[in-house]
Amino acid sequence: MDDERAKSVVLPLIEKATNSTAPDVDPRLLKAIKSTVRYSDSDLRLAAQTLMYLMKRDHSQVRYLALLIIDELFMRSKLFRNLVVENLDQLLSLSVGFRRNHPLPAPASVASALRSKAIELLEKWNESFGIHYRQLRLGYDYLKNTLRFQFPNLQANAARVQQERREREMRTKEILLKKFESFRTKFSSIKEEIQSNIDEIDECLEILRKKDEDMPLASTDDEDMEEFRNSELRQIRLDSLREGEKVQESSENKVVFDALREFYKVLVTKHLAAVQEWISVLIRVEVADLRFRDSALKDLIDIRNLIQSTKRKCEESGCDLPKIANAEEEEDIWEDGTVEAFEKGKSGPSCSENKDGPAASTSNNMMGAGCSNNSSNGNERRNSQNNGSKSNPLRSKLLTEAPMLNWGSFLDTWGSNRDVLANQRGLDLEGHWGRVDYDAVIPADKIAELNVRASVYEEEPVEIQPCRAPLRKGELCQRRDLKICPFHGLIIPRDDEGKPINENSVTEETAAGKQPEESTPDVENDLVDQLLKQAVKNFRERDREEVKKRELDKQALKRAKLAKVREHNEAVLRDAAIASTSRSSHIGEDVETGNGSRSCAKSKKQTLASMLKKKETSKDRLAQRLLNSRARDATIRQLTVAEEANYREAFPNQW
Amino acid sequence: MWKETREREFGNIRPNLFSSRISKSRVSSIRLSNYKEIVSSHRGSVNSLQVDLTEGRYLLAGASDATVAVYDIERATDYDGGGLIAKHKSLFVVNKQHEHGHKYAISSAIWYPIDTGLFVTGSYDHHINVWDTNTTHVVMDFKMPGKVYRAAMSSIARSHMLIAAGTEDVQVRLCDIASGAFAHTLSGHRDGVMSLEWSTSSEYVLKSSSTAQSSSAKARAPQKKLANGNALKPHAVCRISSQVKTAKQRSHPGMLSSHDRATGHYGVVTGLKVTEDGMYLLSAGSDSRLRLWDVESGCNTLVNFETARLQSSKAIQMAVSQDSSLAFVPCMTTAKAFDIWSGQTKCTFRGHYENVNCCWYDALNQELYTGGNDRQILVWSPSKSISDEVDEWRKEQAATVDQDNWSD
């Protein structure tokens, strides 16, 4: 009873799911199978049986889909795993086809997909459940080590990548730890070293300052305090004062300066960098001794601050410090330069504009700087232009009017009308070291011809409105056509539900063919509306009738066709009955198959059988005649009977 | 099980009955073991398996790539899957590179029945070697006239140390380890001897079976040799005493089928196995039939074994359970357990991917070992007892869990 019920549910589901030409199982069917099987062990058993049975089907597509379902259930149900694993060798031979006497059935393309899928799945299963099922391990091992099948090794590859990353992390961790250890041992000495360095710098500065104080500079401070009225001037003065305070290098304090420079260099290049590194190490390292780490970190940050303050002091002290401080910055500058050059290429026009007016570019550096550095940024250029406008209002006015041009080689000779020298190599005079013939000149108008500015036509982007006719799905048609959608006709403005917004005008145009009366006065509107409605109604009714008629016609046609086919069949059968008995069967079959193929062609639906079907050749047809299954069966039967008889005679005493 | 334990404690059932009951119930639940795995070190098909008779601990395997290996089946060499799977690697392997190693396939490898210090290998390179297990050196070498198909030693012999060797040659030779010479040559077969077995009840009885002459159109019953010279016996019995008499009783080939009707095999007899008590002899033929013979009378017991396809090209090694209730027979890619008395198939062991060549039943642990052409040695064992299962459950918790996993 229970079985009966199960049969009515799972079997057809699985049958239906595997009876498809799609490369995947229909997800809805799959879900239905899963939910059915989930709550009933008997169903699951039945499913396993059915799937194994389907795996034996002589069609790779069926096997493939069955295998996909098996995989789904295998990954989920323990019972199913146990059932499948019992017959794993059979399953594998049916899906991988490793037994030579049982190759995979047609079609070949699906068969190869089936094989690779089976191998992939076996690997997956072995990866996830191999530990619990010896059979899985055995099968995997057999295919891999005995038959040397290539497994995709997905998991293994992923694991290897993971492993490598882990190893790298481990290594960095180890290195960090090592650094940390060495740091721990060296920490105090380093601290002392830095401290002494800073002390020395301080001393140097002290010495310099003392010398400073000897000088009679302080008197200027209170001399003319009241003279500086506005803050700007005062600022300038303060700056100059500070400048003045700075000690000038002279022959007598040169030694001190040298020492200071030396210390500064050591401090910045060695100690500061080292401290930064230690800090990063301490932050990244993972050690058990957190307290030491934290305290060391605190110390280091203090030291860094100290170093930085000392550095600032040095810089403020005004001694002519070596450039080591910004060795890195220097590189930056260099990089900036390259970027600049690159950008120049892009922003040619603005540059060329600058070149156009040499006066302007010389007149304000700001402009040039803006062009070269920030030329890619329109806003900033605007700014720089604004800056420039103060000096040259005409120019700025012209600039706002000037068109933007894309860069091109024509810009090289923009505005110039000079003749160009040429030699036997053409215009390339750069690398020409020989005699120059000043008569061989290409006139300016020729050059201009050569440098005609080319521009590509760019279409103005037009927003093509989607059709937005309501579809049966409930969505709106998203097809974008210029005027007419091939499915829904003229594209008209529609509201959110896909209804035409101004139906009147459309129907007017299409049905009644009346002029859209936009200019009619309001008084006439009512009448017109009524007329329109009437027209629409008429039109629709006519339409409906036509459709009905067409349908009727179609049915009649179909009926006639069917009758014809039936007649034909009957005639053929009659003929067959009259004809000799041996051939009659063939004829009947032929007709049947012919009908079948015709119906197939009519429906145009791809079926499993159609996948197997090859193009029929005359040879095939002959073979079919000769090797007709019935004839073959008959012969085989006869042969076996004879054999059996022989055997029985030969061994009469065997039971 | 607990009930039986209590009954044994009360003295209601005798200990040996209790143990036999337990082992019987265990044997009936044999399946492919997931927790015991023998890592085969062979590159060719495994032709012969034997667990030593003294300790029941060392599994000797001979393979067609001329390797012999010994596995410790009690103690695993390493574990896999969080201790779930015990892997048994070979203790040692003797292969072609060994200075006295066989050149060709090893057809049979057997332990010296008295202890594990010696083992014997017979090979297709016409040699039978006796090896010292501890040093893996050849201590004795017998040159045979042809390929050795099977070598056997009596498990109960106390007064002789004879290796019976069945070869391509028509004669069965008895090689004496003690003297290093051929003690006897037993003639009687008319073709190479495919399999032979010593009786388990009498140390002087050897049973052998021959290949049929493939050239002759008529298949023949297994050759028989009788020592007693009495009436015709349909199965091969050869009794050797210290004063050996070998008598040949050969009937006319044409008369053969009429004389012992419904007895012999049609084709090659590929395997022989004597039951533990020595009362019955099980034979397998290339005609895919199994027969059970009563040793004493020499009659076919007419047990109708269910049809199973048997390998016909190679000798197979069958096994019989300790209480002679089950026979384990290699049937192509599977091994089958037959009920000896009814002939019904009790269960089918699927696991090998190619033909199974040999079975060995380990009575101590109720485990079955099978070796096949796919180079594997598989262990088939009863499901674990409850305490083991608890352990396993814990382990499983540690390892990945094999559970239902329904996401939708």
Automatic annotation (TrEMBL), chain A:
<dbReference type="InterPro" id="IPR049431">
    <property type="entry name" value="UVSSA_C"/>
</dbReference>
<dbReference type="Pfam" id="PF20867">
    <property type="entry name" value="UVSSA_N"/>
</dbReference>
<keyword id="KW-0234">DNA repair</keyword>
<dbReference type="GO" id="GO:0000993">
    <property type="term" value="F:RNA polymerase II complex binding"/>
</dbReference>
<dbReference type="GO" id="GO:0009411">
    <property type="term" value="P:response to UV"/>
</dbReference>
<keyword id="KW-0158">Chromosome</keyword>
<keyword id="KW-0863">Zinc-finger</keyword>
<dbReference type="GO" id="GO:0006283">
    <property type="term" value="P:transcription-coupled nucleotide-excision repair"/>
</dbReference>
<feature type="region of interest" description="Disordered">
    <location>
        <begin position="584"/>
        <end position="603"/>
    </location>
</feature>
<feature type="region of interest" description="Disordered">
    <location>
        <begin position="343"/>
        <end position="394"/>
    </location>
</feature>
<protein>
    <submittedName>
        <fullName>UV-stimulated scaffold protein A</fullName>
    </submittedName>
</protein>
<keyword id="KW-0175">Coiled coil</keyword>
<dbReference type="InterPro" id="IPR049408">
    <property type="entry name" value="UVSSA_N_a-solenoid_rpt"/>
</dbReference>
<keyword id="KW-0862">Zinc</keyword>
<dbReference type="InterPro" id="IPR018610">
    <property type="entry name" value="UVSSA"/>
</dbReference>
<dbReference type="GO" id="GO:0008270">
    <property type="term" value="F:zinc ion binding"/>
</dbReference>
<dbReference type="GO" id="GO:0005694">
    <property type="term" value="C:chromosome"/>
</dbReference>
<comment type="similarity">
    <text>Belongs to the UVSSA family.</text>
</comment>
<feature type="compositionally biased region" description="Low complexity">
    <location>
        <begin position="363"/>
        <end position="389"/>
    </location>
</feature>
<keyword id="KW-0227">DNA damage</keyword>
<feature type="domain" description="UV-stimulated scaffold protein A C-terminal">
    <location>
        <begin position="401"/>
        <end position="503"/>
    </location>
</feature>
<dbReference type="InterPro" id="IPR008942">
    <property type="entry name" value="ENTH_VHS"/>
</dbReference>
UniProtKB/TrEMBL annotation, chain B:
<dbReference type="GO" id="GO:0031464">
    <property type="term" value="C:Cul4A-RING E3 ubiquitin ligase complex"/>
</dbReference>
<dbReference type="InterPro" id="IPR015943">
    <property type="entry name" value="WD40/YVTN_repeat-like_dom_sf"/>
</dbReference>
<feature type="repeat" description="WD">
    <location>
        <begin position="262"/>
        <end position="303"/>
    </location>
</feature>
<keyword id="KW-0677">Repeat</keyword>
<dbReference type="GO" id="GO:0006283">
    <property type="term" value="P:transcription-coupled nucleotide-excision repair"/>
</dbReference>
<dbReference type="GO" id="GO:0043161">
    <property type="term" value="P:proteasome-mediated ubiquitin-dependent protein catabolic process"/>
</dbReference>
<dbReference type="InterPro" id="IPR019775">
    <property type="entry name" value="WD40_repeat_CS"/>
</dbReference>
<keyword id="KW-0234">DNA repair</keyword>
<keyword id="KW-0227">DNA damage</keyword>
<dbReference type="InterPro" id="IPR020472">
    <property type="entry name" value="WD40_PAC1"/>
</dbReference>
<dbReference type="GO" id="GO:0000109">
    <property type="term" value="C:nucleotide-excision repair complex"/>
</dbReference>
<feature type="repeat" description="WD">
    <location>
        <begin position="349"/>
        <end position="381"/>
    </location>
</feature>
<dbReference type="InterPro" id="IPR036322">
    <property type="entry name" value="WD40_repeat_dom_sf"/>
</dbReference>
<dbReference type="Pfam" id="PF00400">
    <property type="entry name" value="WD40"/>
</dbReference>
<feature type="repeat" description="WD">
    <location>
        <begin position="39"/>
        <end position="74"/>
    </location>
</feature>
<dbReference type="GO" id="GO:0000209">
    <property type="term" value="P:protein polyubiquitination"/>
</dbReference>
<dbReference type="InterPro" id="IPR042238">
    <property type="entry name" value="Rad28/ERCC8/Ckn1/ATCSA-1"/>
</dbReference>
<protein>
    <submittedName>
        <fullName>WD repeat-containing protein ATCSA-1</fullName>
    </submittedName>
</protein>
<keyword id="KW-0853">WD repeat</keyword>
<feature type="repeat" description="WD">
    <location>
        <begin position="99"/>
        <end position="141"/>
    </location>
</feature>
<dbReference type="InterPro" id="IPR001680">
    <property type="entry name" value="WD40_rpt"/>
</dbReference>
